[in-house]
Every structure is written in C-alpha cells, then in structure tokens.
Amino acid sequence: MSEEWKKENRLLEESDEKRQHKPRSQEDETDEWDYLEEREELTEERILEMLEARQYKELKEELENNMYPVDLADILEEFDQKQLVLVFRLLAKEEAAETFTYMNSDMREVLINALTDSELEEVMEEMYLDDTVDVLEEMPANVVDRLLMATDEETRVQINQLLQYPEDSAGSVMNVDYIALRREMTVAEAILKIRQVGLNRETIYTCYVTEKRKLIGQVDVKELLTTSESKTIEEIMDTNMLYGHTTDDQEVVAGIIRKYGLIALPIVDHENCMVGIVTVDDAMLVLQEEATEDISIMAGVSPSEESYFGTTVVEHVKSRLPWLLFLMLSATITQMIMNSYESALAVMPQLAGFVPMLTGTGGNCGSQSSTLVIRGLAVGEIEFSDLLKVIWKEVRIAVSISVILAVVNGVRIVLMGQGDAMMAFTIGVTMACTVIIAKVVGCTLPLIAKKVGLDPAIMATPLISTLVDISTISVYFAIVSYVFQL
Amino acid sequence: MSEEWKKENRLLEESDEKRQHKPRSQEDETDEWDYLEEREELTEERILEMLEARQYKELKEELENNMYPVDLADILEEFDQKQLVLVFRLLAKEEAAETFTYMNSDMREVLINALTDSELEEVMEEMYLDDTVDVLEEMPANVVDRLLMATDEETRVQINQLLQYPEDSAGSVMNVDYIALRREMTVAEAILKIRQVGLNRETIYTCYVTEKRKLIGQVDVKELLTTSESKTIEEIMDTNMLYGHTTDDQEVVAGIIRKYGLIALPIVDHENCMVGIVTVDDAMLVLQEEATEDISIMAGVSPSEESYFGTTVVEHVKSRLPWLLFLMLSATITQMIMNSYESALAVMPQLAGFVPMLTGTGGNCGSQSSTLVIRGLAVGEIEFSDLLKVIWKEVRIAVSISVILAVVNGVRIVLMGQGDAMMAFTIGVTMACTVIIAKVVGCTLPLIAKKVGLDPAIMATPLISTLVDISTISVYFAIVSYVFQL
Question: A250 burial class (0-12, 13-18, 19+ CB within 10 angstroms)?
Fold first, then answer.
C-alpha cells in the first residue's frame, strides 16, 4: 500500500495535474486493499497499444473503471478519426454521452457522421438537455436535423424551447432537471420524491417549492435530512432565496453563484414560472470561459470558444488581424505628427532616440490602469458611478509615479551623457505629462465603454497604447521644439 | 404580487447585479403571499437613516431578514469606524461571524480592537476554522495572540496546525469539518450520523469513508438517499475518487474541482490521512483570485489580495513602479541603437516617423501570442512539451499576418506620399520581420518561464513589447541603412 501512496506522491511532486489525481481502480471491491494496489495508468499511449493489439475487451473494461470522461475527451483529441470512432463505440452509453459533451465540435461531427441512427439515439438519450442544446448550437443544419430525429417528441419540444434562448443567457446554460416540491408535502414525502426522481448530483441538493409553476421557496437536502419527517415543506422552506431570469447574462448568474457560494440558482421565465436551474459546475465553466474571453479581448484578439490548438491557423489569423490592421493604420497619425517635425529631427536627430522609451513607458502606465479597472468591472467592484473616484485615485498615483520616473530618467540621461541638464529636464516634463495622460485615459476608457454598452475589455493595452503614443509624441515634440526653439 | 415581480424585473433591466437578486423578506410566514409583497430595500442609505434615527431594534430585524452577509460586508466598507462597530453589534452571532469573514483586513482590525473579549469569543466560535485561519494570517502578532486567547484549547491546536500550511496551499484553504463514515456502517446509520453532526451545506453532500484516518472511499448523499437503508457503506462507496494533498497549490485543487464538476475534494496529509475538504465555493473564490492575479501580473502590476479601492495610493505606486522603472531603463538599449544611427536620421529624418508604427505593431503581435499562451497554460491546455508545436503554429500565423500587414502598409505609404515604392518595400520587409520575431518571442517566453518555475504571466505585454522594441529597431535600421546606403 505504501508503494502506491509513494507513487502518488512522486507523481504529485512532478506536479502533473492530469496524472496525480487520476482515480484508482475499483474493479474488485471484495479484496480489501485492491484499489490501493499498483496499477498501470491508462494513458494515450496505452490506449493506442491496446487498439493496435486489438485488446478491445480489456480496453473497454479499463475505460469503464480507470478513466474520467473529461480526461478521455482530451486524449481522443489526439486520435485519428478511425481510432476515435473505435474507442467511442467501446464506451458504455452513459460514459459515451458524457465524453461526447466534453469534445470539441470537430470531433463531434466526426462521430455524428460515423454513428448509426440507433447509436446516436442512445447517446442523445443519455445526455442532459443543456448539453444537447450546446451540441446542437454548434452543428450545421443538416446534422441538427439528424440529431433531432434521434430524439423523442417530448425532448424535441424542450430542445426547441431551449434553443430559443439567446446565446450566453442563463436560459441557454440552465439545466431543466430539478426536484420540485409542493408546500403541503411532508418531509418524508419529499425524501420519497427524491428517491423516485433521482437525477444527477448537483440537481438534488437544493429542492424548489413551486405553486402553479411559480417559484415560492427552496429547501436544502440538509434541511430535509435533519428535520422531523412529519413537518411540512412549508414549515421548513426558505422563501428568502435568490433567483435569476432566463434572459440574464450567464456571467451575471454565475457571478451570483460564486458570490453567495450556492450549489445552484433557480431560473424563472418572463412569467416568473420556474423553468430550470444553473448548477455550480456550469457556473465555474462559464466564469472560466468569460475570463478567457476577457483576457483575449484585452490582448486584441477576437474571442473564440475553441481552445488554442483547436483553432486553425486561418482562424487565428482572422481573430488577430482586425485589431492589428486598425492599430497599424491609427499609428499613421503618430507618423504624421513626427513628419511635421522633420526639420527639427534633422537638426537634433538624437531626439528620435527618446521616442520608444517615452511611448513604451506611457503604454505600460496606461495598460496598468486600464487592466485594473477592467478587472474591477468584471468582478463587480467598480461601476461607472465610481468614475470620478477612480480618476482622482489614478491622478494621485500618476503624479507620484511620474515624479520618480522623471527623476530617475533625468539622472540616467546626464550620467550616460545622452544629454545635458536641460535635455534631462525636458524629457522629465514630457515623461510626467505622458504618465498622467496615460493613467487618466487608461482608467476612463473602460468605464465609458461599460456605460455605452461596449465590452470594457476592448479598451485594454493595444488601444490604450496607440492613443497614448499619439498624445505622447504630440506633447514631446511640442515641448522640445519650444525649449530648443526648433 | 405582480407588482413585486414587476419591480424585480425593472431592477433586472437596470442590470444592477447587487440589487436585482436581493432576497425577499420572510418575516411572516403565516401570511401566504407576504414574502412577495412590496418592501423597501435595505440599502446603505437606509441603514444610515435608521442608525441616525436610533431605530436599532428595527435595523436589527431588517439585517436579520433582508440582508446577506457578503452584501453587508460590501456596504459596511463605506461606513466609518463607529458606524461599523454599531451595526456589527446588532447582528446575530452567526451573521456577525459570516460578515466578518467577508470583510477586508482594515475593517477586521477595527472590530477586533473595538469588541470585548467575550464578544470576540462568540464571533470566533461561530466562524469556520478555514476562515479563522485566513483572518489570522493577515493580522499583526499582538492581534493574533488576542484572537487565539478567545478560542478554546482544542480549536487552538487545530488553528496552529492549519497556520503551518504554506500560503496558497490546499491545506490553507481547506475546511476541517466533514462527515466521516466507517465502511461497516449501514446506510441508516450513516444518515443518522449526518443528522447528528449536521455542519454546513457543502460539507455534507459528499461523505468520506475512512479507516485508521486513511481515506478509503466516498459516498454521495444522493446515494444514501436512493439506496436501501440496510446496505453497508462498503457496498455503495466509490473507491475511485479524486483527492488532493495539503501541500498542493490551491489553484491546482480548485482546477480539479472545476474540471470534474465536484462539490468538494478530499485533502490528505503527507501520511495520507484525511485532514479536510476543499469545497466548491472556496474553489470558485480561489479561481477568481488567481485570474485577477494573472491579469494584474500581465499588466505589469504586482498582485495584491486587496481590491482596487481597498489599496491605498502608496500601495498602488509600490505595486506598479518596479516594472515601469525596469522597462523604462531597458528602453535605454533602444535609445542607444537609435543614437548610433544618428547620422542616418540627420539625412533622412522621415525614417523616425515609422518607428512608433513598427514598434506598436510588433508589441501588439507579441502580446497577442503571449497572452493566448499564458491563458492556455493557466487553464491547463498548453504545456512546456508543446513548445515546438506552439512555435510552428505561431510562425505560420505570423507569416500570414505579416504579408497582409506589409502589403496594406505599403499601399498606404505610397498613397499617402510618405515614401516611394522602395520605401514601401523596405518598411514591408521590416514589418514582416517584426511580426515574426514578435510572435515567436511572445509564444516562447511564457513557456520558458513556466519551465524554470517562474509565473508565465510576467512574460506578458510590458516585457514582450520592450524586447520587441529592441529587436524591431535593430532590424529596421540595419535594413534601411543597407537599402539606402546611409
């Protein structure tokens, strides 16, 4: 036993998340310590070997006992189409359905084209409705038709309803399976109902009390377990609950789940009828996606739901090119300003040498401010009404920083013999103006974007640094041409 | 009733997260629709009014029925010390303890200094151990002593143990309260145990089976509820579970909880004894903190756990200055390169005008690549072993982008009369080199940082753009001085 633990620890020290937390087998529960015994891990290489050797039966068993669907989907991404279909067919239908939900859209299309109608039907039956809808949203129309034909009438109606919610709305990520109780039920009856309907884990931990389909209260399973069985639901239900609407942004709903530490949030429609729940596991994925989206936008990349490697070169180019083109052409303005000081540069060409340092420092100052404000907006700490408060803070920060940078840079210029005291002073003044402008522009633009309904993240580094370049160069040449009378 | 719903909807449309999902009162449960009736919201202004009017009893009642601790902590941040202590003393001790855990360290210190020993003892008693440890980690030594004196002997031993886990480790965020079962128990006995120990919500939904303190299995509450009561835990327990170690990074543990959609992850110590669990609500907060930290570092700001407004101007300056100073001084290199081409600039001063556009585009290209790679590393999609795969992808993207940018820019130069075809061609070649260098440097540095144990996020925009500035300017002047024989 200590051998296994040692192995676990060794793996852990290698800090390889994927391996160290791999589940152990539970094949033979009658042998007391069996599940702690040494056991070969089911890696990509091992699966390929077993496929090669046609050990399908062993592979099927291993896949069932020794693999999580989310990990398998990762591994299958590396496989070719034939291998993918082969392994998928070995899976028990529950595992198949769950693995399917974790795949990217290319893999899904391969499988949908390869599977027979009856196989497809089995997978669709096992999938949760919210996952089915996610799959359908990404598929071309002919595939959608085929998938819908593989579901029964009732499910089809529900799917069509879910498909109507706007993308990224709470309605589009919610789960329609939840436990609904009535106020007059006793605790014993409620527990009986949970036993009967079952469902998956997250969905039973909070039960919802409805009346004429309207949400009127909620009861934790914990409450049910720790209360006298003869009490009624009405006596123990919490009517003081949080809820969201189907049209809420998924990020807002996920933020509420995070803020209040909930397991699930009930969702009501425009008539305030309870229609589903958003569970904490989906909320975590939504928040991850949104953070990735924000970070991409902040770097001037159009966000995509695909992963880095899942995106083709052409798609990468398409998502990166627009901002680069826009910013490159905006830089024409800087160039025009500099060209108008051509004669000054001909007389004092060393003036050009300070330009990258000034614009670089300005860009960095601006991106610090814009990034902190964008993040503050994203986590709900900063709002548009804080505009003046933010500007006042940034101005004070900018003044302190600009004095320090100007002095350090001035000393450097004199020590390195790049200019005299007059030059050091002039650059210092420009530096101070640049820092203050950059910080104010950097903190203001994201707030304005938010106010006018744009994503604040587009106001990050690339745009800010281009704007700051323009202002820095204008200020710089205005100051130097005045001081040195060029 | 429809009035209240309309109000809710109106609030929702204003998209003010804090308000719209405010809980409704449950003061009088005997009145059927009471909790849906119109009711004034408990805002900051309202609390201040009630304090002013000395309506302490009404305020106490409102605070109990109409306010979540996390929201109250937000509101209290705006209050002065006297008001803070006054409101805090009105809270029931459970609410007081929970509100306390959501406060920032300044507010906590004010309260600790204002409360009597017995009041402090009550708060400490109600707090979960992991929260107590968080509080203690931030307090000066004399306050820690006073807090520890307010706890009983047993708790003190546990706290001291938790305090020894490294900051940001799983041990430091875990909850030591969980339900431990024995394998020979029946389902009925297990449910009885849950009834007896109770604890808070998240901690009961998965129960852990231990033997000689070692973790040997887990059982979902759902399993307990839907199985025959006479079965033993051994028969239904899942031995194929995930777990973490006390020394694991909190981000890794939170990532596992997100990836596998768990409610809680059991944590074992170096002897593999079960010592606690990390719950999904804490995991969400950890992931939020880590995302904020990454974003701050990527903007060249030293991360802090405090919020934007919770950080003083001096602290903001301290966290932003180091990178700005470093990058400003690095820009000296660019300046030295440009100065060495002083005579060329004197002859063709218009060459300087292209510098901001070239360095700007290079910086933006580099930051796109570095940001996508840093995020890929953070969510576990990209690893160091993917280095060549990433470079190959970025090179192909860079070549496509550079051709488009060079052509567009060349046409622009000729059209705007900023140069002849030769100039357009020269700038185009420089542009292409810049884009390719920027993309390769941008994608490589974060991977190398990860490999040598640094945070990849430090390799983001500010550093990349400074490096790209240097290489762009070297390449640019080398090319133009060759082409135009300067």
Answer: buried
CA distance B250 to chain A (A): 12
Contacts of A376 (CB under 8 A, 6+ apart): A382, B307, B308
Specify the amino acid at residue B39: R
- Domain end: A164, A192, A209, which one? A164
Distance CA A317, CA B365 (A): 11
CATH code, B266: 3.10.580.10
A151 and A200, same domain (yes or no) = no
DSSP assignment, residue A354? T
To the nearest whole Å, the CA of A337 is away from the closest chain B CA by: 8
Judge if A322 and A293 occupy the same domain: no
Instruction: Say whether both B254 and B379 belong to one domain.
Output: no
Q: At what angle do helices A141-149 and A129-138 cross, to 10 degrees?
A: 150
Helices (H), B265-420: 280-298, 313-340, 342-347, 355-378, 387-415
* A458 & A317 share domain: yes
Query: Does residue B325 share a domain with residue B443?
Result: yes
Predicted confidence (pLDDT) per residue in B402-434, tens digit:
999 999 999 999 998 888 888 899 999 999 999
Q: What residues of B are in contact with residue A386 (Cβ under 8 Å)?
A: 309
- Is the complex ipTM higher than 0.85? no
Asked whether residue B200 falls in the same domain as residue B139, the answer is no
Least confident of A77-81, A140-144, B109-113, B390-394: A140-144
The domain tally of chain A equals 3
As a whole number of angstroms, the longest Cα–Cα distance in chain A is 95
Helical ranges in A116-169 per DSSP H: 117-126, 129-138, 141-149, 153-163
- Model's pTM, two decimal places? 0.77
Query: Is A409 in Cβ contact with B239 (below 8 Å)?
Result: no
Boundaries of domain holding A219 = 180-298
